[in-house]
Amino acid sequence: MAKDINLIDFTDIEIYNMVRSRELGRFPNSFWGGVDTLKTAKDLTRHLFEKILKWDINDIKNKTIIDTFYDNRLGGMLKQLFNNNLLDALLNAYPELEDWIEEKKNSKLDDLNNKSDKSDKKRIEYTDEELIENIQQKSIQLNRNPVMREMSEPEGHIYTARFGSWGNALIAAELIEDICAEIDNSEEAINKAQKIIKDFAYEIGRIPTEEEINSLFSEGEIKVYFKSLAGINNYLNEGYTKEELINILNDKRNKLGRNPTNKDIKFPRPIIFIDKFGNWDNGLKEAGLDVN
Question: What would the DSSP string read from start to end of 28-67?
């Protein structure tokens, strides 16, 4: 049984690494049910092939079998999102392989997955309206919104392939609200949101909690501006410019009446300054502060 995971503390890849190493027994229950499901699948598949297995494109073409996913704890993803259709999973992760995958399908030499032709036919047979009606009828039958694995004739992966994610399919069926529809996604609005979260983290001296983030942004704003709660964590650890860090150093200098040390600034973490400037003193110099 998986231990409790606060998603704000970990990226999707970090969670996958814990699952693969069996530090976690399984993925959190909601992991494959988000609106960015296919993007998550793409990121983890590429991470497996490129960072863990160290494969190049030719290796992926020649070595990948279904067991590759199951042996590396992505079998549930393959089954839930792609109905064990290996070629669909590869195409999702590597759009540049489209011609090769189509050749495999068209030549009927699909040694990787003998279900691909059947999957393609199903995908073509259903119109958007029919798929939406299926979801709505399932919702009435269950008296709640269905999850993807509960869909059959066609299977759930047909819906995600058509609409981009299960969340998008539920939106199309008008079973959930498109929480991002009315959010201002202009560059100005994004920059403003990023400044708000940075200023807040600096003020409290740490990564904000989920409750604190929810007091600053709506769920739709979080998705539009940062993609996810974990995305805020990533942004606060990686998204600082030199100018922003210099402003922080000068602000701290004005408040302390002396040059700040790396112990005076709790957030951003000192390592962020060191990574950006090379060392702490270089940051002080670039901020125009005298260094003895």
Answer: -TTGGGSTTHHHHHHHHHHIIIIIIS---HHHHHHH--HH
Where does the chain have alpha helices with state H? 12-20, 37-46, 57-63, 66-71, 75-82, 86-93, 98-106, 116-125, 128-142, 156-163, 166-172, 187-204, 210-216, 219-226, 229-238, 242-256, 270-277, 280-286
Place of tokens 């983030």: 213
Quick one: pLDDT at residue 35?
58
**CA angle, residues 67, 69, 114, in degrees to nearest 5:** 60
- Token pair listed for 96: 């540049």
* pLDDT per position as a tens digit, 172-214: 888 776 666 677 778 888 888 888 988 898 888 888 888 888 8
In this structure, what token pair is assigned to residue 147?
Answer: 């999850």
21-39 in b/e form (b: 16+ CB < 10 A) is: eeebeebbeebbbbbbbbe
Q: Which amino acid, 222? A: I
Q: Tell me the whole-structure pTM to 2 decimals.
A: 0.43
CA 91 to chain centre: 18
The alpha-carbon radius of gyration of the chain (Å, integer) is 23
Q: What is the DSSP letter of 95?
A: G
